[in-house]
Amino acid sequence: MATGVTRKISAASARAHTRRAKKTNSLPLPSGILGTALAVLFIGFLAWAYQVIQPPPPKICGTPDGPPITAPRIKLRDGRHLAYKEHGVPKDAAKYKIISVHGFNSCRHDAVIADTLSPDVVEELGIYIVSFDRPGYGESDPDPNRTLKSIALDIQELADQLGLGSKFYVVGVSMGGQVVWNCLKYIPHRLTGAVLVAPVVNYWWPGLPANLTTEAYDQQKLQDQWALRVAHYVPWLTYWWNTQRWFPGSSVIAHSPHIFSHQDKELLPKLLSDRKSYAAQVIQQGDYETIHRDINIGFGNWEYSPLDLENPFPNNEGSVHLWQGDEDMMVPVTLQRYIAQNLPWINYHELQGSGHIFAHADGMSDTIIKSLLRAK
Questions:
Q1: Which of 29, 95, 217, 227 has its CA 20 to 30 A from that of 75?
Q2: Number of neighbouring beta carbons within 10 Å of residue 191
Q3: Nearest to residue 112, comparing CAs of 271, 241, 255?
Q4: CA 23 centroid distance within chain
Q5: Structural domain spans, the chain
Q6: Is residue 306 scored above 90 in pLDDT?
Q7: pLDDT at 256
Q8: CATH superfamily to which 73-373 belongs
Q9: C-beta of residue 163 within 8 angstroms of C-beta of residue 186
Q10: Is 160 in contact with 82 (CB distance < 8 Å)?
Q11: Where are the alpha helices (DSSP H) in the chain?
């Protein structure tokens, strides 16, 4: 008689055999769907980011959506227009003809030398001054192709169309001082003399000692250090960086009080009062083509260094003057001193206790212009 084999089954095993499989609520994604979804999200993010960093188009003066044209203008070689303003004695009767170059976030009305020059000095010396809106500012058309050289050529063409003669003087204030460097580089044969008033220094100019630039750079506020880094290394982010609200942008754009010296703060009320009537015109065509493009060019990679410039007046037929306050909070005096020491043909004037806007102090314009015109 055959006997069957009895197998013992544990309780746990029995439960496992009788337990029903759990149902899942999610359906498996077909192959490649997840990767495609991630790619679409990434592309969408890039498209959003691209839109965010793009500055709005400028509102050109004289166009249906743009501001009106109120100033006299010349038409330049490439079709752009340059707005200008005349000061002093009539042009045809002038003995000295000067082109004034305004600074950052300014316009043709910010011609401090012309506005504060004594009427007696103007008449006595026979001085004619023309100020103009740099590209994009005021009522001058933007120049999306602006370079260091192009602005010097704009000045040359302004002089030619206004009939200022084969030679003329240039005076540049702050960022306008950088434009004067460009004139000394690209059109020195057209100059009779030049003045740089607290000219902005680019920390990345070749020839400046690394230890000196590092020390001066570190003295700037951290937010300004970052704003300049962005302008120099990733200029396409400049507009976004200075308009976003996550991190503080340029304190110069924000007009923060810490960028002004004691003297500057004393001079500011009058300066701001004078600007009330035209302040809205300064960047009326858009802030990108004005202040942000200024920063990108001013602190970008220059194709030359001012330290390599040669004396434009080797026979003393003219002179170049550089004026700097030793308490300037925006332009380090140490770098200015180094530049002046390495360019012995520069007439360097350092003012004790003065800040960045010292040219607005009583009698300062008279001193600056007399030193220029009587140095011949």
A1: 95
A2: 22
A3: 271
A4: 65
A5: 73-373
A6: yes
A7: 87
A8: Alpha/Beta hydrolase fold, catalytic domain (3.40.50.1820)
A9: no
A10: no
A11: 11-18, 33-53, 112-116, 119-125, 148-162, 175-186, 210-218, 222-233, 238-243, 262-275, 293-298, 333-342, 364-373
